[in-house]
Amino acid sequence: MIKPVEGFSKLTKEQKIDWLTTNYTKDPKAAKALLQRYWNDDTKVQKLHDEFIENTVTNFYLPFGVAPNFLINDKLYAIPMVIEESSVVAAASKAAKFWLNKGGFKTTVIGTEKIGQVHFMYHGDPTKLKSFFNSVKPKLLEKAAHITKNMKKRGGGITNIELKNKTDKLDHYFQLHCTFETLDAMGANFINSCLESFAETLKTESLANLDFSEKEKNIEIVMSILSNYVPNCVVRAEVSCPVDELNIDHQMPSKEFAQKIVQAVNIAQAEPHRAVTHNKGIMNGVDAVVLATGNDFRAIEAGVHAYAAKEEGYSSLTHAEVENEIFKFWIELPLALGTVGGLTSLHPLVKLALEILGKPSATELMQIVAVAGLAQNFAAIRSLVTTGIQEGHMKMHLLNILNQLGATEIEKTTLTNYFKKHTATHSSVVEAFQKLRQ
Ligand code: MEV
């Protein structure tokens, strides 16, 4: 039986691997060799990766691809994408090319406001808390001045602090709802440091407040943390063209194609089961660029899905319409991204991805990411309403299946050619492969 381990984090990497492979794998020697095979030959690069997280034993590769020909506000981008799913990069590239000669993508940043909150419990008269807050507000800012100094110099900082009474939701629950401008930084560290300073000031000042009773003085700070829900840090991306120009190689007349896209989007707006998959497709594009540029895709995912549910129920992030014979397709996304700080200056491939994008500001990156999401959705809907998703998907998936089967390069070429004329499903690929080997 495996015993709990003490002081695991203090072991060397080799010791951790020995312990892990001995206790949890059938063939420790092979497992150890596999883990080591994924180490980087350059010890400096390996050390850098080891130190990103804790208890690192090896690296885990994800493919870094690129989708060229994205015309965004008249500037041509090649968009780096990090993702494990086949078809995504091909779909993005196809959508980029489709819109290239139709004016490309147009984007607007609607807002850049970040949010953080100090959550606390107060037992007493809310009007007394309100006047205490008004008198203490300048002090909250003053005490955090050493944290905000540099950000302020660059034009950012704390934009507002509000007291919110949340007792209708939870007894005694109040919060300081704070907004920030963090410029090119995602801002998590900056925001959390400001919030912790506010909490501390709130606590000490309330203890010294003569208007409060003993009970009221005892404000209970529960936690101080940024919110990944940023409904005022939003970007819009759009494509449009005359319906007649929605030409898709005679697969379907332009007018019918436009109508089908609008119907597909309307269905995702009306129906949460479809909306989740529809938005998942959007996030294929969004996450891939977010990852490639060293941003936090979990934060983006959480915020985006909350945004998708901001009205009556969970709904589509994209919208489509035909008006006066003009087809319009657009997306609005909340994206708190950074192009400085965090991984952006540490991970060599993130640095390269940002260089490929022309060293964008955070607002420019918001626009690129939103376009990747919109393009991905356009490509998915296009397949869904014409050939169906499996045709293109299985062709891209073919290589994965052939690799799993251990096909040689010659076998791969033969079978790729064969499946240009035949429908590729998992079983048909296995069958054709076995036949070829016989
Ligand atoms: C697959 O990763 C994404 C799709 O399911 C998205 C969609 O259905 O819109 C193709």
Could you explain how this protein is built, in words?
By secondary structure, this protein is of the alpha+beta class. It has four domains: about 10-50, no CATH class; about 65-110 and about 235-385, 3-hydroxy-3-methylglutaryl-coenzyme A Reductase, Chain A, domain 2 (Alpha-Beta Complex); about 115-225, 2-Layer Sandwich (Alpha-Beta Plaits); about 395-435, no CATH class. It has 16 helices and ten strands. It has helices at about 15-25, 30-35, 45-50, 90-100, 125-145, 145-155, 190-205, 215, 255-270, 270-290, 295-310, 350-355, 360-385, 390-405, 410-420, 425-435; strands spanning about 65-70, 75-80, 105-110, 115-120, 155-165, 175-180, 220-225, 235-240, 320-325, 325-335. The strands form three sheets. The protein has a four-stranded antiparallel β-sheet. Strands 5-6-4-7 form a four-stranded antiparallel β-sheet. Strands 1-2 form a two-stranded antiparallel ribbon. Strand 5 and strand 6 (about 175-180) form a beta hairpin. The longest helix is centred in the last third of the chain and has 24 residues, at about 360-385. The model has no long low-confidence stretch (mean pLDDT about 95). The structure holds (R)-mevalonate. (R)-mevalonate binds near residues 85 and 389. (R)-mevalonate binds next to helix 10 and helix 13.
